[in-house]
Specification:
This protein has about 325 residues and is of the alpha/beta class. It contains 8 helices and 14 strands. This is Ribose-phosphate pyrophosphokinase.
Length: about 325
């Protein structure tokens, strides 16, 4: 798949080695030799086991749980490659952690997403490749190129293949106002109607459904979101769609399955029939309940990496 002569190297930390192996294999490359360990006091130890001088280096690391460890692994790997004279370093972050803190919503709030952008740039990253940033304006926090892949490119064909197009009995639903643009794209591509749930969030990780905008009575519903953390928003939305809206069947999809705290128990006990996630975050076996289906993102990142390496446009992947 790789044609021109400049060396390309694929490395990964400990967050998602399976995904890194899939990408390297699809590119016809071995996974680079790197040892990423933790000292007894918790400090991260990184050793790159092969030359990267002049190479086009791609470091694959989702900043998921344990978030701070995975983030430090990535930053130290970037620094190690920069100091070893890598030609270009691309941080491949299928899931970009800290993206939810993208603005000051009240006095004395941090903007953590901007801080992470600064850390990645200072460490030595020349480019960032990620998927479905929680807020697209985070791209503007960087002074280096950021390619934000669309999880919709995997989820929409799956929904079309499972349910079909232009159905009268299926509605795309946004679980909150922040996901309306994402849900609208799904509705347009699938030629389906759109409904929106208007909710009020009293405090972090707690949501209260207030109103359903659109007609879901007697219909199947596909809830669309970018990430699912504790699943409170998703489950409350599903319950409201059944109890208030009169929906007959609830399905859901999201790009990132953070699934922290009581998420699995909530999903298991909810009216949600199926939940489709992308494997931007590696799900441990104990979280793989029958309701959850996982789709692979390796083909999307493989194509994006090949295009970046070949210096051709990545924009066709955004459609």
């Amino acid at each position: 798949m790789i044609s021109h002569g400049k060396n390309i190297k694929i490395f990964c930390g400990n967050s998602h080695p399976a995904l890194a192996m899939q990408i390297a294999s699809a590119l016809g490359l071995p996974l680079g030799k790197a040892t990423v360990n933790t000292f007894s006091d918790g400090e991260i130890s990184v050793s790159i086991g092969e030359s990267v001088r002049g190479s086009d280096v791609f470091l694959i690391q989702s900043t998921c749980e344990p978030v701070n460890n995975n983030l430090m692994e990535l930053l130290i790997m970037i620094d190690a490659c920069r100091r070893a004279s890598a030609g270009r370093i691309t941080a491949v972050m299928p899931y970009f952690g800290y993206a939810r803190q993208d603005r000051k919503s009240k006095a004395r709030d941090p903007i953590s997403a901007k801080l992470i952008a600064d850390l990645l740039t200072t460490a030595g990253a020349d480019r960032v490749l990620t998927m479905d940033l929680h807020a697209t304006q985070i791209q503007g926090f960087f002074n280096i190129p950021v390619d934000n892949m669309m999880g919709a490119s995997v989820l929409i064909p799956h929904i079309a293949g499972t349910f079909g197009l232009n159905r009268d009995d299926l509605v795309i639903v946004s679980p909150d106002l922040g996901s309306v643009n994402r849900a609208r794209k799904f509705a347009e591509k699938l030629d389906l109607p759109l409904a929106i749930i208007d909710k009020r969030r009293p405090k972090a990780n707690v949501s209260e459904v207030m109103n359903i905008i659109g007609d879901v009575r007697g219909k199947k519903v596909m809830l669309v979101d970018d990430l699912i953390d504790t699943a409170g928003t998703l489950v409350h939305a599903a319950e409201a769609l059944v109890e208030k809206g009169g929906a007959t069947e609830i399905h859901a999809c999201a790009s990132h399955g953070v699934l922290s705290g009581p998420a699995i128990e909530r999903i298991q006990n909810s009216p949600i029939k199926t939940l489709t996630l992308l494997d931007t975050i590696a799900l441990p076996q104990e979280k793989m309940i029958d309701k959850i289906h996982v789709l692979q993102v390796a083909p999307v990142f493989t194509e994006a990496i090949a295009r970046i390496y070949e210096e051709v446009s990545v924009s066709p992947l955004f459609d």
